[in-house]
Amino acid sequence: MARFATRTVCLLLSLGCAAPALAEAPFSISSPDFFGGTLHPAQMYNHGGCKGGNQSPAVSWRGAPPGTAGFAITLHDIDTPGRGWWHWAVVNIPASIRQLNANASASGALAALGAVEARNDFDNDGYGGPCPPAGTVHRYVLTVYALKTTNLRVAPGRPAPFFEHEILDSALAHASIVVKNPPLP
Hints:
Layout: H1 2-14, E1 28-30, E2 59-62, E3 70-77, E4 85-94, E5 99-100, H2 104-107, H3 109-113, E6 116-117, E7 139-147, H4 160-170, E8 171-180
Antiparallel strand pairs: 1-2, 2-5, 3-4, 3-7, 4-6, 7-8
């Protein structure tokens, strides 16, 4: 019986009896600060030998799935030994927001939205730009997550891996960009 039903559905589809669903645009992100696959110096850390602007990148996203209650963003160095290096994790970005301007972390724009930022691996809350050892090039993954809830168990001062756990538990979709740092002398 199931075999017959499958053939009937296929026949109906081939005759145009059922209209195909329109595909929605996939969830995607972009950043003018990551042009050409390399971090802009404004996003690099400004401490301990690094002379960047330490500004969180501008980022925009589109195609969030139905049921999205809010967004989260992370920036993680995947080439640091061990578990990598957390540069940024932020949650509770409202579902109505589709972009952040550069320096949203330090400017207070995220706080004004009610977003919560994790403690990065520099031991500071908020964004801490890349600063790899001299002469090395690392890869950084910027990810925007569409979340099914904004009721996450997070608080300022909590480390980024804790935020990651909560984000992954609530993620409906995610999109990433991978960039490298400019070579440092």
